[in-house]
Amino acid sequence: MRKMRGMWKDKIFWGTAGVALLLYAYGIFLEPSPLALVIGSVFWAVAFLYLLWASFRKKVRKILGSAG
After folding, report:
1. Backbone phi, psi, residue 5, to 5°
2. Could you report the per-residue pLDDT of 7-35, keeping only the tens digit for each?
3. Alpha-carbon distance 5 to 55, whole Å?
4. 14/27 Cα distance (integer angstroms)
5. pLDDT tier at 60 (50, 70, 90 boundaries)?
6. What's the pTM value of the predicted model, to 2 decimals?
7. What's the pLDDT score for residue 68?
8. What are the contacts of 42-51 at 24+ separation with CB within 8 A?
């Protein structure tokens, strides 16, 4: 069995994505709230920007490590 890596073990990504999902659920099902949906969208954006940044940082470290 292959070992899971990358975003599957990233606690910051899953934490922010989980908060976004909870806010969406609250804004849609419990109490219709556009503010909760907007804040949930911001959390989704932060989660994926963090994932993109972490991936970029990993690639840069790999390039710098192989060059030196």
Report:
1. -135, 180
2. 677 888 899 999 999 999 998 898 888 99
3. 12
4. 20
5. confident
6. 0.73
7. 54
8. 43/16, 43/17, 43/19, 44/16, 44/17, 44/20, 46/16, 47/13, 47/16, 47/17, 47/20, 50/12, 50/13, 50/16, 51/7, 51/10, 51/13
Residue located via tokens 């790999």: 62
Q: Give the other-Cβ count within 10 Å of 65's Cβ.
A: 8
Q: Report the helix count and the strand count for the chain, using DSSP H and E.
A: 2, 0
Q: Which tops the pLDDT comparison, 4 or 43?
A: 43
Is the predicted pLDDT of residue 2 greater than 90, yes or no? no
What is the full DSSP assignment across 20-38? Answer: HHHHHHIIIIIS--HHHHH
